[in-house]
């Protein structure tokens, strides 16, 4: 039985010589011994030009006679459906004998056609129910000729398979649609992310530490996740608490996610409520990008070297050390829930800034016929362990109607609280989108009478392309005196007796606007929150405005923020606290003199009459800019000089941060490191901190090869690496940088595509040729050269890519052992196959040269 040699990927180097011979033969058909009406290459030409011995058999080149034709086998190809990329996969190609050509010649064409299964065609959107005659033959291939106007063309040079199917034969497919069959639940693995930070005050000898551990376990579609935070201050007991612990899995047919454990209810209709229990909710990210309707970014201004602490639902979820000036935090762990972020900026002089980052979005405007739902049931989970764990249930539903309208509503129920909400959202076209809703609540706080009330809310969003204005969130809420949220009521049921002094919000207005001022003119941003409370006369107002601009490579920023907190003592005298902060900074690159280096100036002015100025120089160094550094010197009109130095080094296994700062109040050393760890079936791999969805690169033997996706990441000594960030339900290409391969490595495939589900650790497998590279001249037992065009493969790796023999019997091979055996074939008969034993033991050079006899 003839041997089927699997042929994969591109090998232009090995085909180049063959093309040189075939091209003129096809252009000048008179060179062929039998002139026919169609173009034909006679293998005897090889003998006439001395490329095969006159006594040797001619190679069988039938597979190469027609355009783009090759030997049958399995090829790794890019699938293009109606010229739109769908996937990269291995497709089996088989020979199909076609009819005689258009010239009337009786010579039959041998074509290479793809073998498709019914499931593959269904995944490409073919309506199988419309073609009942479609069946798979004994080889598992569908006769696609029964599909009208179905065409496929394999371009061997680009390794692309273009499939053309009439739209009438396809199911309606949204742009960017990915079949469910491509969703990858990933590998089973233990996951650990860690982030440690610490500081030492040399003036007081105080030290404090913080550690975040985000751990998990993946088994099939199930994900177990836990976020724990620990803090230790000098002279105090350590504080360790679990922010959440839950198990989660996807339910793809329902486009939903099931969660069991600790999390927060969704906040699109009601405020988010932390719970321990069960939640089943729609996961919009399973939809393609074109059908999807947010993660908070925390921005602020530090007056000095400061510590930023962020809390959500009472839990500390983030800590960072920032330099004076404007800062932006984008790398928070996902907290498994929603709710406003309470930010505290602890300055080096002991003063604190407090502000709130709203974490809410407009109600999701749904397309006609689409719906989203949530069902949450469990016990209330307060950050205060003394608060009663009251059972509650929440259910919400949103549905897209005609005329760009969405209706939504929900209910909440507990023994101490009941509420129902209903709302309407409408797309106003050029005028943006608006929603309005009302919530009716009945509640009983601890040690209080039953009350009831309503809360009315209106929200608006608009992106004005003509003016470059983006109104991200504009909202107003009015609540009657008797209205309370579920969280506000349940928080009164605690063991410390602190159920009095509760104040409910009466009015709250929030606004976020971004304005693009045009090419070269920068952008303007503005945000504000204004709220007042029933009883007690408490009011909280905050407002900020900022301008970002640039000239050539110079960037600058102007910002102003204002906060006013007011309250009444004993409901009589009103007390007011006002905070003003003005900031300016400018950054100038020094790349013409010092590559990767910049100098910057910062000015902060705050009440009462405090002015701080800083000059810093910083930049990046080392390969791939893996080291960033900054040296700063400052002066304040309230105190003596201040300054500091910071470094951050990023490697494949994590990030290390160090810093030293000093001012009038303290001299302190800050340090920290972060990273990730995966324990999987093939061992343990260290890497950078991972997002919830990540990838494991498996390339056994390909040590220290960089990833094109992130040049600071490379495979470890075993050939494994972690790509720490992937987007769930989105196709991602994972690529290795072939320029970083060692001399004894070759990588036929440098890119793999994955579509991970939420929380998955997708695996990207790469198979490299590791070993010697050599030019081997193959001779028959009679001493003649093996025929031109023969295929050669190492018997030690029968699934590897086949190579073609060039003139004089020479073939290039890679991934060879010191000694081994080669299988050679130039036809289907036994007399057209042989095996050769080679030895490279005594041969030196990066690319060796030797001779082997084929018997």
From TrEMBL:
<keyword id="KW-0732">Signal</keyword>
<dbReference type="GO" id="GO:0015473">
    <property type="term" value="F:fimbrial usher porin activity"/>
</dbReference>
<dbReference type="InterPro" id="IPR000015">
    <property type="entry name" value="Fimb_usher"/>
</dbReference>
<feature type="domain" description="PapC N-terminal">
    <location>
        <begin position="41"/>
        <end position="197"/>
    </location>
</feature>
<keyword id="KW-1029">Fimbrium biogenesis</keyword>
<dbReference type="InterPro" id="IPR042186">
    <property type="entry name" value="FimD_plug_dom"/>
</dbReference>
<feature type="domain" description="PapC-like C-terminal">
    <location>
        <begin position="776"/>
        <end position="841"/>
    </location>
</feature>
<keyword id="KW-0472">Membrane</keyword>
<dbReference type="Pfam" id="PF13954">
    <property type="entry name" value="PapC_N"/>
</dbReference>
<keyword id="KW-0998">Cell outer membrane</keyword>
<dbReference type="Pfam" id="PF13953">
    <property type="entry name" value="PapC_C"/>
</dbReference>
<protein>
    <submittedName>
        <fullName>Outer membrane usher protein</fullName>
    </submittedName>
</protein>
<dbReference type="GO" id="GO:0009279">
    <property type="term" value="C:cell outer membrane"/>
</dbReference>
<dbReference type="InterPro" id="IPR043142">
    <property type="entry name" value="PapC-like_C_sf"/>
</dbReference>
<dbReference type="GO" id="GO:0009297">
    <property type="term" value="P:pilus assembly"/>
</dbReference>
<dbReference type="InterPro" id="IPR018030">
    <property type="entry name" value="Fimbrial_membr_usher_CS"/>
</dbReference>
<keyword id="KW-0813">Transport</keyword>
<dbReference type="InterPro" id="IPR037224">
    <property type="entry name" value="PapC_N_sf"/>
</dbReference>
<keyword id="KW-0812">Transmembrane</keyword>
<dbReference type="InterPro" id="IPR025885">
    <property type="entry name" value="PapC_N"/>
</dbReference>
<dbReference type="Pfam" id="PF00577">
    <property type="entry name" value="Usher"/>
</dbReference>
<dbReference type="InterPro" id="IPR025949">
    <property type="entry name" value="PapC-like_C"/>
</dbReference>
<comment type="similarity">
    <text>Belongs to the fimbrial export usher family.</text>
</comment>
<keyword id="KW-1134">Transmembrane beta strand</keyword>
């Amino acid at each position: 039985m003839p041997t089927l040699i699997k042929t994969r990927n591109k090998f232009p180097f090995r085909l180049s010589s063959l093309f040189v011979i075939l091209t003129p033969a096809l252009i000048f058909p008179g060179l062929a011994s039998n002139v026919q009406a169609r173009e034909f290459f006679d293998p005897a030409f090889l003998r006439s030009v001395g490329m095969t011995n006159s006594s040797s058999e001619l190679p069988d080149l039938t597979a190469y006679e027609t355009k783009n034709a090759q030997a049958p086998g399995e090829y790794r190809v890019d699938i293009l459906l109606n010229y739109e990329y769908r996937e990269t996969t291995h497709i089996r190609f088989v020979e199909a004998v076609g009819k005689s050509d258009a010239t009337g010649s009786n010579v039959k064409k041998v074509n290479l056609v793809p073998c498709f299964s019914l499931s593959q065609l269904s995944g490409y959107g073919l309506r199988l129910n419309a073609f009942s005659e479609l069946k798979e033959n004994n080889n598992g291939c569908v006769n696609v000729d029964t599909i009208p106007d179905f065409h496929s063309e394999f371009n061997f040079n680009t390794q692309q398979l273009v499939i053309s199917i009439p739209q009438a034969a396809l199911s309606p497919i949204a742009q960017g649609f990915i079949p469910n069959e491509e969703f990858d639940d990933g590998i089973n693995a233990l996951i650990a992310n860690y982030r440690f930070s610490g500081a030492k005050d040399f003036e007081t000898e105080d030290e404090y530490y913080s550690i975040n551990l985000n751990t998990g376990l993946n088994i099939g579609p199930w994900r177990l996740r836990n976020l724990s935070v620990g803090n230790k201050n000098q002279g105090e007991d350590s504080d360790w608490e679990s922010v959440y612990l839950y198990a989660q899995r996807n339910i793809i047919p329902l486009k939903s996610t099931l969660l069991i454990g600790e999390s927060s209810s969704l906040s699109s209709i009601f405020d988010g409520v932390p719970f321990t229990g069960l939640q089943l909710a729609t996961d919009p990210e399973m939809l393609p990008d074109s059908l999807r309707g947010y993660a908070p970014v925390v921005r602020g201004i530090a007056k000095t070297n400061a510590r930023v602490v962020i809390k959500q639902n009472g839990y500390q979820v983030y800590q960072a050390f920032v330099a004076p000036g404007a800062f932006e935090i984008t790398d928070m762990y996902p907290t498994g829930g929603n709710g406003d972020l309470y930010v505290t900026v602890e300055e080096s002089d002991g003063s604190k800034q407090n502000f709130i980052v709203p974490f809410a979005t407009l109600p999701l405007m749904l397309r006609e016929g689409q719906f989203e739902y949530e069902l949450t049931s469990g016990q209330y989970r307060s950050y205060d362990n003394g608060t009663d764990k009251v059972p509650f249930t929440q259910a919400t539903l949103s549905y897209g109607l005609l005329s760009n309208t969405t209706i939504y509503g929900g209910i909440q129920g507990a023994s101490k609280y009941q509420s129902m909400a209903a709302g309407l959202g409408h797309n106003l076209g050029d005028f943006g989108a608006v929603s309005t809703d009302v919530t009716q609540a009945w509640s009983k706080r601890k040690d209080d009478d039953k009350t009831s009330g309503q809360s009315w809310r209106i929200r608006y969003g608009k992106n004005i392309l003509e003016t470059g204005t983006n109104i991200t969130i504009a909202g107003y809420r009015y609540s009657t005196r008797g209205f309370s949220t579920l969280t506000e009521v349940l928080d009164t049921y605690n063991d410390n007796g602190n159920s009095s002094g509760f104040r409910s919000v009466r009015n709250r207005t929030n606004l976020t606007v971004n304005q693009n001022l045009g090419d070269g003119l920068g952008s303007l941003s503005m945000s504000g929150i204004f709220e007042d409370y029933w009883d007690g006369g408490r009011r909280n107002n905050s407002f900020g405005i900022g301008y970002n601009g640039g000239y050539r490579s110079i960037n600058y920023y102007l910002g102003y923020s204002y906060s006013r907190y007011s309250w009444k003592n004993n409901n009589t005298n009103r007390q007011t606290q006002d905070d003003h902060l003005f900031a300016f900074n400018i950054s100038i690159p020094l790349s013409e003199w010092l590559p990767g280096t910049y100098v910057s100036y910062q000015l902060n002015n705050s009440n009462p009459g405090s002015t701080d100025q800083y000059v810093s120089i910083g930049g990046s160094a080392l390969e791939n800019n893996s080291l960033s550094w900054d040296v700063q010197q400052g002066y304040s009109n309230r105190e003596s000089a201040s300054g500091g130095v910071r470094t951050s080094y990023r490697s494949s296994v994590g990030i290390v941060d160090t810093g030293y700062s000093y001012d009038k109040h303290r001299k302190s050393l800050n340090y920290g490191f972060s990273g990730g760890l995966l324990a999987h079936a093939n061992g343990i791999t260290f890497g950078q901190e991972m997002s919830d969805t990540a990838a494991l690169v498996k390339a056994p033997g390909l040590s220290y090869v960089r990833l094109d996706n992130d040049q600071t990441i490379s495979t470890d000594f075993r050939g494994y690496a972690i790509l720490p960030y992937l987007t769930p339900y989105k196709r991602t290409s994972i690529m290795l940088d072939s320029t970083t391969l060692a001399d004894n490595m070759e990588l036929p495939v440098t890119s793999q595509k994955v579509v991970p589900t939420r929380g998955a650790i997708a695996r990207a497998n790469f198979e490299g040729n590791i070993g010697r590279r050599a030019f081997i001249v193959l001779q028959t037992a009679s001493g003649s050269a093996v025929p031109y065009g023969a295929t050669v493969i190492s018997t030690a790796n029968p699934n590897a890519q086949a190579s073609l023999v060039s003139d004089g019997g020479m073939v290039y091979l890679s991934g060879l052992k010191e000694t081994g055996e080669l299988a050679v074939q130039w036809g289907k008969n036994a007399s057209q196959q042989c095996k050769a034993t080679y030895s490279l033991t005594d041969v030196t050079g990066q690319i060796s040269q030797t001779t082997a006899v084929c018997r």
